[in-house]
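The authors assume throughout that readers already know how a fold can be written as discrete tokens. Each protein is reduced to its one-letter sequence and a matching series of backbone shape codes. I therefore recommend that a typical entry be quoted early in the introduction. For illustration, here is how one protein appears when written out as sequence plus structure tokens:
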Amino acid sequence: MLIHYVGDLHQPEHATTKVDSLYPSSDRGGTAEKIPSIDDVNTLHFVWDSVVYEYTGRPVLPLSDNDFTWYTTEAVKLSSAYPIHSSAILSGDFNAWAQESY
């Protein structure tokens, strides 16, 4: 769950919400903002969650050993393609992460 919460904290749709005459009760973090569907991604929130349509669909739970291998391989590829220097990491400062997302 920690991985999920940290991921959500970096999701801009979790750090802000839209409230106006169209969304008087809020846009629910972008889930109320409908867009044309591509591979079942049909809200602004899910565009972000799918890494802009790169990872669409939902995993079948519980995850299998093959699933864990696939996720690990993908994580290694992403961290190699988009390295982050340790000085850019706000170590354990969850509030700072939320402010950065906002």
Q: What stands out?
A: Residues 65-81 form the longest helix (17 residues).
